[in-house]
Here is the input.
Amino acid sequence: MRSETLTINMGPQHPATHGVLRVALELDGETIVRAQPIVGYLHTGMEKQAEYKTYTQSIPQTDRMDYLAPMSNNLAFCLAVERLLDIQPPPRALHARVLLTELTRLASHLVWLGTHAMDIGAMSMFFYTFREREQILAMYDQVCGARMTATYFRVGGLAMDLPADFLERVTKFLDTMPGHFAQYEKLLTGNAIWVARTRGVALLSREDAIALGVTGPALRGSGVDWDLRRDLPYGGYDQYQFDVPLGVHGDAFDRYLVRLEEMRQAVRICRQAIEKLRAIGPGDYRLRDYKYVLPPKELVKTSMEALIHHFKIVAHGFFPPAGEVYQGIEAPKGELGFYFVSDGTPKPWRMKVRSPSFTNLQALDTMVRGRLIADVIATIGTLDIVLGEVDR
Amino acid sequence: MTPLTPERIEERLRERFPGVEFRRPDGAAVRDHTLVLPASRLVEVCTFLRDDPELGFAMLSWISGVDWLPREPRFEVVYGLLSLARRARLTLKVQLPGENPRVPTVTGVWPTADWLERETWDFYGIEFTGHPNLVRILLPDGWVGWPLRKDSPLGYEEVAFTHNTPDRVKPSPGLKKLGPKKVRTRAQ
Amino acid sequence: MNDRRDPAADDPLRILGPAPPAPRTEEEGLREELERGLLFTRADSLIGWAVNQSRANSIWPLGFGLACCAIEMMSTLGPGFDLSRMGAEVMRPSPRQADLMIVAGRVSLKMAPVLRQLYDQMPDPKWVIAMGACASCGGIFNNYAILQGVDKIVPVDVYVPGCPPRPESLIYGIIKLQEKILATGVELGPLVKPRRKKGAA
Here is the structure.
């Protein structure tokens, strides 16, 4: 008896694809023969647009890439440009950036946990994690004025100084987090349904993961011990103590445990950052190199040179040396990198974004062959993709 | 393990590929270790870089195209490699002419290059010979043109303000302006 | 002021094909409106009032989150700013069961035909909220890839500015939409004879 495969479309509008992802599933009965993701429904032309804007004007665009972890994208951008200019932010800015980036990691993993669990069926997780995330967004609001698209980091430091009571607020929040983590574990980790839906699902072997360029918790869930914060440190992370969790089997359940542990380590790094910030005390939040960085407002209003520098940087932009640079960071989704080619003018000649979700999504086909349709939902959830980053 | 220095990588490459010309790109601030090589030897060099136990560049991080329009060779394809075992990065560059730019695919070496090369094809029109499925990935399927080339327009649409639309239709002076309608909702 | 001016800007809507022909006479225009289900009497009947109340107070959004605004929409549905207070209890995944399409996020040209198809699949009466700057006018992205405002392809009832708008802004937009619904006339169907007014078409 001859049988044929059926190709169905999991369309761009779907409640569980985390954005506008289209997957063409070729099915034999209910088993998947091939799953081909079709992307581009959110393509925004950010790389082309960056060639028409100065470096600082492109920072707001980076928030819209991985919109669940906006300050992480800002950090990658600013670190790449700082490496091109060969400057370092002052220590207070460095540690404030680490603090906010780890809070961002926490926020991103909370959304991941809420939506992944909601897709699989545990709907109350969505409400629990978004309750915590509201507090982090309120902290973002206090620090830079915007709940989500922060654009808080600048080349050479921060846009504004941290508010006076910010550190106490973060400390109070961090003190409540272990209780919440215990709540999540109680709801999911020992739950027979959760284990049945995620154990053995979305398997990715070590060799496949490295060959497919997968990075981030998906890579660590498969047992590969690689974390850019520890192995190729950037932005002050070499001064912090943290552990890197590793999975064993490479299935969705291991990735869930890896991300849960990463959340705990993020809380640990945040506490260390707060101690360091308290030890440094008040200080510069931006580098005092006025060729590239805006001078502080008090100087602009009193000194002529500072005024001219301010005018030049805002109106025209700063002039980096001609060359190129690539800087990758460990974003919550994987390795996020920016490659800049500069021709000496204030606008980049080329900006290329190495997006973790774009590369991780290629592994969907390998992870889902021979499984059932419901496992596709679990796989998309466990890969933790953000379409803004995939399509840019 | 001693850290892998750029000099050691170049030494190994030159001893394994004596006829191939590896040079550093020019530019005042090339902050990463970058090597320019001819397109014809790309696949062999990449296979060697991946399989050699001392180097072990097992992961391809990213591929980018660059368009240097007034300059010949016009296009560059840049490959970012990552060695997990030796904790090192390496950037390889291939320079291509403006007419019919083509370079062999590295999907045989690193399967991740599939979508990365498709993206470069989509943006620049650089053909990767031997690619299993070289079609558009991010732009709509029927799109004509290569948007990230320097001679493609940004597509900026003039925003309509009052100062650049002198012949717009203005509301007639007798038009009654409506205020918000008072509705009684259950909450009240 | 730093943008490089672009002389050869293409019409971004060219991939959608030629526009449908405009109606020639007034009668044809009115018939077209009728077929689209637009309304033409004041809500001066009890049935009209009741229908409007039920439409406004139990409006079901279609889950159409595209980009960052979708996350703020999810926050609005979440525990902090509960949208089901306004009646939007369930987010219907299928367009056939939804009556409000909240376009949350930037609409790329690849997505535009999909959006139009979803809008056409929604049954009447239907409303559209353009949430955020990108849905209203293209937002910060004025380039080859993004549709400069979703009102180029679907009729929009409420525009909610912001990038992304705070959940309170979205809730205010939905309240404004409810006011709009309560103020509209109701088209009475074939079972109820419409009262003929003197001189009406």
Notes: Chain C touches chain B through 25 residues (CB under 8 Å). Chain C has a mean pLDDT of 77. The helical segments of chain C are 26-35, 46-57, 68-77, 112-121, 133-137, 167-183. The CA atoms of residues 110 and 145 of chain C lie 8 Å apart.
